[in-house]
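Exercise: predict the fold of this chain.
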Amino acid sequence: MQYGMPWPGAVVAREAEKAGVSVFCSGEFVDHEAYTTLAEMVASTETALVGPAIAYAFARSPYAHAAAIRSLWKRGAGRMFLGLGSGAYRINRDWFGVEADHPVDRMADLVGAVRAWLHAENGSPVRYSGPYYHIDADVRAPVLGRLDVPILIAGFNRRMAAAAGRVADGIIGHGLFTTSWWDDVVRPALDDGARSAGRTGPIREHGWVITAVNDDDPARAELDARRMIAFYLTVRTYDPLVAHHGWEGPVAMIRAAFRQGDTGGMAAAVTQEMLTAIAVCGTTGAAREALARRRDGLARDVIYLAAPSFLVSDRRRQAYARASLNLISATGLG
């Protein structure tokens, strides 16, 4: 297992690499774009694996995803991956203005189309035909050549996880994932998808873990972790996990508080059971114990020690990133 981290900036990243962090990822939202951050990661690291985890899949064409990777490959050759996430239907429709119906099938088709561009050889046309994407490109300029870049899918529910097993090189687990969700839902779906495609090789597992460590103020760290969990659970996409754990009552309270703009009420509705199952937070000692306890219920290949972002300043996120470095050597997970 490797330790990863959402990109904390070049200064903290240098400290993180020395401490044993070997993977960095970029995410995106309205104030940060995945490939711009990926360019900074490529330029500011030497050996770490880097990639989006995730880039919004449907907000860009297959060409745009592949061209961004090709552009950055010149400096990051051999240490890049591409993580794609479908995003919520309403975000695709209302923010991006793109089609996002049948997201599982559309995602599987997108992976095939992106691979067509990444695997394209000089002198050969780039062709791909699927239900959502069609490519017939004759690129005369000698700028191609096959790039073997692992493509991972952010798969939360069974069908998307099965698609990852069927067509992708790996899966990216959400920060809400619990041990039970990995073991009882995600991994069986991955195996089902792989079997349906006749695949026998390993499927990579990356996973985010909400991580907030503050020895001077552990209560603040716990509050930030609770807020992050609550913010995620306002999204109905995650209802299967809620039902799986029997958390419908607390989540109803979270959503009621959210509608009222009551962020304190949102955090208060997150139960201790939910916090323990999802997050790593509090003092360094408590966080070490939590990671050790969840050892077999985390992503098997890369875990991203991810600071909360909801109502958390950039400065405090950097402090959480630095504090999380103290967890790496002591847990026995590396």
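Check your answer against the key: The two ends are 6 Å apart (CA to CA).
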